[in-house]
Design a protein that fits this description.
The complex is a heterodimer of chains A (about 220) and B (about 450). Chain A is an alpha+beta fold. In chain A, about 45% of the residues lie in helices and about 20% in strands. Chain A is built from 6 helices and 5 strands. Chain A has a 5-stranded antiparallel β-sheet with strand order 1-2-3-4-5. In chain A, a hairpin with a 4-residue loop joins β3 and β4. Chain A starts with a helix and ends in a 5-residue tail after the last helix. Chain B has about 450 residues and is mostly beta strands. Chain B is built from 6 helices and 16 strands. Chain B is globular. The chains are: A alpha+beta (about 220), B mainly beta (about 450). At the A-B interface, α2, α3, β2, β3 and β5 of A face α1, α2, α3, β2 and β4 of B.
């Protein structure tokens, strides 16, 4: 372009007013950059802190209590009860390894039993998964809680949206991953193990109810 | 915006907090009062024991084990696949190239034993030992024994854990989840062979975890690929596989998968590092002759409908590698040179008829179709023209039957052809292969 214009521009750029403005704008820029960086640090720290929240150092008893309250209401209390499962009882049951006495949880609202809960283990890829199945008096599922997930993969089964699928299921339900229970890519064993476990528990509870062994 | 922490920033923090902090929504119980929490869990249950509740006494049954044996702390498992294939490799040839007309093969392609041990709640050991092709005499064609995984895992929190040892590269869907009943085709598919060199494993260390039970991630530093082994056949031969892997080019391998929508998993993977291997002709630096791989994947399983798609691209410093390994005395790039970009994708879809069959012998029955499109020279080496023989379109049609969720019987028909064939060029190759597979995992 014309040398005149360039010269004029250079002169103008050297003017004290412009230089002062440029310095201020550079300083502002630096401040803005620091602020942006600080904002990012605060955001990341907040994210990390918040995502750390779900693992609480609560008690197992507390977790069981809140699970029953969710299923049946605030006034619910649970108690344990040992089901005496004699030979005849064990012969009808194909759930895992039969034991002579099993502990059930039952929920009371006042003096009325409103439902039952069973804590069970199923095997994940290499670690047991411990969960709680809660049913009402009609042996319909009211809740499923994962009490302990020990594996490095498949932790998505702990999501409330996935566990919610079990609510309303009965012993007649398919409880089949890919059909009425959503599959989770990469968690084939966990999803199948918990679904099969729930299905067998419902069958077991049905047998117990028929034999009038439920409290 | 004058102050850095103004109201819009605080609003953003608040929104993020609401999204991430555990929420609960049990809406259907008539007597339910505002629920307290539902997202709680205990990564080690023994930490949660208190208040006189004995978890062992509560448990209704002993662990139900799909594994062969379990002493409690040591677990044995495995997976494997037996294949039969009948290939007509001359069927669609329309040129004068001479190669094998047909082949019939029975092959116990993979036999893998998984051995894991729990030293404590926090420290665990995992391993996978594989025998390929049932017989080992040295060299892949005659069979191989490979230690595919062998690492220690240190559990800190669900959100962050540490592992170190021989690791599977966290790239794509299949490299980490490669048990035969988890995919439909008999063989793993060209994308999972040429674009992502499954099974890809090497020495490394890194962190992994899951956030809000829906966003999982892995971030590893692994031994890199060896660029001197790249060629027009791609990058697959560049895997060091833990065999005295050179530590010259530690590379980043990262993956994240979002499973926030029921039935859907969306993933992204990244691999980046040098491949110079300390070779001074290429550059002895940490990042000499760098490669980058970016890959995306989606896996949908909803009401019996199945869709899986993956796409990826390699950026390769082909100029430096070819100058060192694929040039003649006068510096002319030879035809066996590696390309500057390799790109490809596949899409597979199927439907599980097993949901409509009420039989204890049918856990799944999936007719499926898959298309792989891989171009090993999407950007050819400098000085070389694009070669249609290095680009392939594979079509697979088949049926995947599972009597149990972890046992497979597969049948498929693979139509493989290179682009030269599709363009009716002389020398274009195609083949038609019938494949049968038996697979299992436990």
């Amino acid at each position: 372009m014309s040398g005149y214009t360039t010269e004029v521009m250079q002169k103008r750029n050297r003017s004290p007013t412009r230089q002062a403005k440029r310095t201020r704008s550079l300083q502002n820029e630096a401040v803005r950059k620091r602020e942006t960086a600080l904002r990012r640090v605060v955001l990341i720290a907040t994210l990390l802190l918040l995502t750390a929240a779900p693992v609480r150092a609560g008690t197992l008893a507390g977790h069981l209590q809140s699970a029953f309250r969710l299923a049946f209401g605030e006034s619910t209390r649970y108690q344990t009860f040992v089901v005496d499962c004699d030979t005849a009882c064990r012969a009808t049951i194909t759930v895992g390894t039969p034991r002579a006495n099993r502990t059930l949880l039952f929920a009371r609202a006042g003096t009325r039993t409103v439902g039952w809960g069973v804590v069970d283990n199923v095997m994940g890829k290499e670690q047991p998964i411990t969960y709680l199945l809660i049913v009402d008096r009609n042996l319909q599922v009211r809740g499923l809680e994962i009490l302990a997930y020990r594996e490095t993969r498949g932790a998505e089964i702990q999501r409330q949206a996935w566990r919610q699928q079990f609510v309303g299921k009965t012993g007649q339900s398919d409880l089949k991953v890919g059909k009425d229970i959503d599959a989770i890519s990469g968690a084939t064993i966990s999803t199948n193990a918990v679904s099969e476990g729930a299905k067998r528990l419902l069958q077991w509870l049905h047998v117990l109810q028929q034999q009038k062994r439920l409290p | 915006m004058t102050s850095g922490f103004d109201s819009s920033f605080l609003k953003m923090l608040l929104v993020t907090a609401t999204l991430i902090a555990p929420g609960s929504s049990y809406a259907d119980t008539p007597e339910a009062s505002p629920p307290t929490t539902t997202e709680e869990s205990y990564s080690t249950v023994d930490e949660g024991l208190a208040g006189g509740v004995d978890l062992a006494a509560l448990t209704a049954s002993a662990p139900v084990q799909p594994h062969a044996q379990d002493s409690g702390d040591t677990v044995v498992g495995g997976y494997g696949e037996l294949h039969g294939s009948w290939a007509d490799k001359n069927r669609m040839n329309n040129g004068s190239a001479k190669f094998d007309k047909t082949s019939k093969i029975w092959d116990f392609h993979r036999f893998v034993t998984f051995l894991g041990h729990k030293f404590s709640d926090k420290i665990r050991f995992f391993s996978e030992l594989e025998v390929e092709h049932a017989f080992v005499e040295g060299g892949e064609e005659k069979g191989e024994i490979e230690l595919e995984q062998a690492f220690l895992d240190f559990s800190l929190q669900p959100q962050i854990n540490i592992r170190a040892g021989i690791l599977l590269a966290p790239i794509g869907i299949v490299n980490e989840t490669h048990e035969p009943p988890t995919f439909n085709t008999v063989e793993r598919g060209r994308y999972n062979k040429e674009l992502i060199p499954t099974t890809w494993f090497d020495a490394g260390a890194g962190i992994h975890g899951i956030i809000a039970n829906q966003l999982s991630y892995q971030l590893y530093l692994m031994a890199g690929l060896n660029g001197s082994q790249f060629s027009s056949d791609g990058i697959r031969s560049g895997r060091q596989e833990g065999f005295k892997s050179s530590a010259a080019n530690p590379s980043v391998a990262a993956r994240t998968v979002w499973r926030g929508i029921e039935g859907v998993a969306i993933g992204a993977s990244l691999f980046a590092g040098g491949t110079g291997n300390g070779n001074y002709n290429v550059g002895a630096g940490l990042f000499a002759a760098p490669v980058v791989l970016a890959a995306f994947d989606i896996d949908v399983r909803k009401s019996g409908f199945l869709l899986r798609a993956e796409a990826g691209q390699w950026w390769i410093d082909a100029n430096d590698l070819n100058a060192a390994f694929h040039s003649n005395a006068t510096g002319v790039t030879q035809p066996g040179a590696v390309a500057r970009n390799i790109a490809g994708f596949y899409v597979e879809t199927g439907y599980d008829l097993g949901n409509h069959i009420a039989s204890q012998w049918v856990a799944a029955l999936i007719p499926f179709a898959r298309m792989d499109l891989i171009d090993k020279n999407s950007t050819p080496a400098k000085d070389l023209a694009w070669n249609g023989a290095l680009a392939n379109l594979d079509l697979t049609f088949g049926l995947h039957y599972k009597p149990l969720y972890n046992v497979s019987v597969k049948f498929d028909w693979l139509l493989a052809q290179d682009v030269d064939y599709l363009a009716r060029k002389d020398g274009g190759r195609g083949s038609s292969t019938i494949e049968l597979g038996l697979g299992y995992f436990f």
